[in-house]
Amino acid sequence: MEIDETSVHTEFDITKDCIFVKNERLSETGLIENAAQACSAIVGQSYFEDDDYEGEGNNLVGYISAIKKVEVYALPKQGEIITTKANLISRYDTGVITICSISCETFNNDELIVACTLNFLIHEV
């Protein structure tokens, strides 16, 4: 929905064929993966050209290097659309890899369902 150099706002439609759906709800693992994907967009975008909408200009690998904090308050249902907002806390670039820390919150109908802080290691392959 929105992205800049230090923040991102995404939406995720929870479909029945999502591998993280169990008993018609998005699992805790799915919520963390959703947060990680949203967070990685902040730093990951700097590895691509502005007009590379398909992401074909680079090949990145990213890892969650630490889950510093995660609080899950509710599991959303299949068919719902959740929104995730993330903000860059810190970033260190070595020229080969990027190490960063990002805070993230996920909402279901304006209700906070996940709050987390994740560390990432991102590099080109």
Automatic annotation (TrEMBL):
InterPro entries (UniProt xref): HotDog_dom_sf
Name by which UniProt lists this protein: Uncharacterized protein
Species of provenance: Ulvibacter antarcticus
Source organism phylogeny: Bacteria, Pseudomonadati, Bacteroidota, Flavobacteriia, Flavobacteriales
